[in-house]
């Protein structure tokens, strides 16, 4: 298999320019270790673990499965219960983790605390202006989320086809394209648009090693690009989730003027966790992106990564190379 070397693979010491970013309730040791073993960058989701001590144990469990590099995601969003970020950061550093993915608000405190300890930081954001701010803070790379993504796409509604090259025009650090990526075609497109790699979330959910119920994986396979809902639009906190009885109820309640407190019981994180653990697709809100329209099977992580890289390499060396006319014969 041909290697695809980019600024991202060189900077972070990863074999393939593919990232499995943090996903609440999903980014656990089984998946992350499999991604690392396949030569991509996997990220544990720190706040899936209830305490910093539990994160330390999960990092240790991952290291028992792989000796390859992996990262930890730290999401920075408003919470009802304050998060002891300093203790989570300490757990990361003391466990020897050297790559952290941040997301949400600006990662100022994380950069100031982690970079002096030799930790490289990838910040995930949804706009060029936020990416530029993160770059000015000293992050090592930016993961830029287009409107197609699962989770929080921001409020600008700019799809990746425009957002990625705009980011490439403005930034000097490596860029990971996120939102809508699930195969080799997407990887080639991202590289052509100026990115240095891709982030896949929903695609990694539909793998053998993903620690979620098989019913959820099959729902992703059967879903189309039309089977998502955008909730919290009226609250300026948009989130793309699977279309189900709960998400449709949230959309309708907010459309009729309800506030967050009116739907809080519907969107509780514990309900979403039940979906992943028990396979009841209508038990709560769960995240998936429009890329599910391109997901047609549940391979192992290695099969998926190998396929994406092989397909991308073939497109670059065969199909695209064949489109370039020989100047001699063309004349």
Characterization of the model:
It is a single chain. This protein folds into two domains: 7-211, TIM Barrel, CATH 3.20.20; 214-278, no CATH class. The chain contains 15 helices and ten strands. It has helices at residues 7-12, 29-37, 52-65, 85-94, 108-114, 128-137, 160-170, 184-193, 202-205, 214-222, 245-255, 260-263, 269-278, 301-323, 327-330, and strands at 18-20, 41-45, 71-76, 99-104, 120-125, 141-145, 175-178, 197-199, 228-231, 239-242. An eight-stranded parallel β-barrel has the order 1-2-3-4-5-6-7-8, surrounded by six helices. The two termini are 35 Å apart.
The rounded distance between the terminal residues' Cα atoms is 35 Å
In one word, what is the shape?
globular
Structure class: alpha/beta
What radius of gyration results from the CA coordinates? 19 Å
Counted by DSSP, the helix tally is: 15
Please identify the top-level CATH class of the largest domain: Alpha Beta
Q: Which consecutive residue ranges, at least 5 long each, have pLDDT under 50?
A: none
Enter the CATH topology name of the largest domain.
TIM Barrel
CATH superfamily of the largest domain, called what? Answer: Aldolase class I
Summarize the main sheet.
8 strands, parallel, barrel
Number of strands: 10
Order of helices and strands: HEHEHEHEHEHEHEHEHHEEHHHHH
Tell me the count of domains: 2
Helix content estimate: 40-55%
| Strands ordered across the widest β-sheet | 1-2-3-4-5-6-7-8
Question: What is the architecture of the largest domain at the second tier of CATH?
Answer: Alpha-Beta Barrel
State which percent range the strand residues make up: 5-15%
Let me know the average pLDDT. 95
């Amino acid at each position: 298999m041909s290697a695809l070397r980019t600024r991202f693979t060189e900077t972070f010491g990863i074999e393939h320019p593919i990232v499995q970013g943090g996903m609440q309730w999903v980014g656990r040791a089984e998946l992350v270790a499999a991604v690392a073993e396949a030569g991509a960058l996997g990220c544990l989701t720190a706040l899936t673990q209830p305490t910093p001590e539990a994160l330390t144990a999960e990092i240790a469990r991952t290291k028992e499965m792989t000796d390859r590099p992996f990262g930890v995601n730290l999401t920075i969003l408003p919470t009802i219960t304050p998060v002891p970020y300093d203790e989570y950061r300490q757990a990361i550093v003391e466990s020897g983790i050297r790559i952290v993915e941040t997301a949400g608000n600006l990662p100022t405190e994380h950069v100031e605390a982690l970079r002096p300890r030799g930790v490289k930081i990838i910040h995930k954001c949804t706009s060029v202006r936020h990416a530029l701010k993160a770059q000015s803070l000293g992050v090592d790379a930016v993961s830029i989320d287009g409107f197609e993504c699962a989770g929080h796409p921001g409020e600008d509604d700019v799809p990746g086809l425009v957002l990625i090259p705009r980011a490439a025009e403005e930034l000097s650090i490596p860029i990971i394209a996120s939102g809508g990526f699930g195969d080799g075609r997407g990887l080639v497109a991202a590289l052509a648009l100026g990115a240095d790699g891709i982030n896949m979330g929903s695609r990694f959910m539909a793998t053998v090693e993903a620690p979620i119920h098989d019913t959820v994986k099959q729902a992703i396979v059967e879903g189309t690009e039309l089977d998502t809902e955008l909730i919290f639009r009226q609250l300026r906190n948009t989130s793309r989730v699977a279309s189900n009885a709960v998400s449709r109820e949230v959309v309708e309640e907010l459309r009729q003027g309800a506030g967050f407190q009116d739907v809080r019981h519907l969107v509780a994180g514990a309900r979403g966790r039940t979906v992943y653990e028990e396979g009841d697709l209508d038990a709560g809100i769960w995240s998936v992106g429009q890329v599910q329209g391109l997901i047609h099977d549940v391979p192992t992580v290695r099969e998926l990564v190998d396929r994406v890289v092989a397909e991308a390499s073939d497109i670059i060396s065969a199909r695209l190379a064949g489109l370039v006319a020989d100047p001699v014969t063309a004349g």
